[in-house]
Amino acid sequence: MPRMLDVSDDVRAEIGDEEADRLLGGDNAPGTYECTSCRAVGDSERDRTSTVLFVGEESAVLAFAHAACIPSQVVPVSEEQLQNAVRSITGEGPAAGEPAVTAEVPLQAELGVTSGLLLINNDVHPTLVVEPLTAIARPGTTGPADVFLELLGEQGFTPVSSVDDIPSANPGWSVLVAMGQLHAILQPGATAGSPVAWWQAHQAMQVAEEWRAAVKRHQRVIVFAAPVGTIGQQSREDLLREALDRAAAAGRLVGATMPLAGT
Questions:
Q1: What are the sequence ranges of the domains in the chain?
Q2: How far apart are CA 257 and CA 53, in angstroms?
Q3: Distance CA 197, CA 106 (A)
Q4: What is the pLDDT of residues 25-51, one digit of tens each?
Q5: Cα–Cα distances in Å, from 256 out to 28, 35, 169, 175, 251?
């Protein structure tokens, strides 16, 4: 029986026309599946369903998602992330001893990224808070000035004077959530091509079910960023909100809203 599948041109190019046509015709396609984004059950015979191809250095895995959660696309990942995705699909769970989530960005800086839910104007919003682990100098210099907020301003982030004011969208930027995990924050490519990772997790970052549900409801994520030492590690979301409020009052917070990758 034909399936309600979306196969993007990029996915078709990777898997070939013959395999794409077999999927659309119902061969090699699942009936029910676990959405790779929100982890809820989907039915490709009744729900519009995206094909999502995870491509590593040596292998690739085809997964499925609600079209409302994530569009059909090719997702480049490390081979280690791909094997963890396979374990997730087969129900084996993540590998033991996974490293903490930090990432390299073009500024050659280690960034800490925290996910949380913030109550803004009586509504719960999915949020990411980005804070470097060290002061950020302008590329090509050795510092010592911290120009993290200045650099982000040049890339479309706007100052946040109150956390109750939702930041404006930053065109071309997006957040990649797949396999029910946070993989990357993407920025526009230098030559108007495919987006590139501004921040990418060394190991896909586990996020709470409530956070994924809020992302699915709003179809976008609020990303806040502050200089090193501004926010810190907060054990509760109310403490995170207090730290963000202090940063905004001190003029040390920028932000942007971003859709899910590909939307």
A1: 5-90, 103-259
A2: 26
A3: 9
A4: 877 677 788 887 777 788 888 888 888
A5: 40, 27, 5, 11, 15
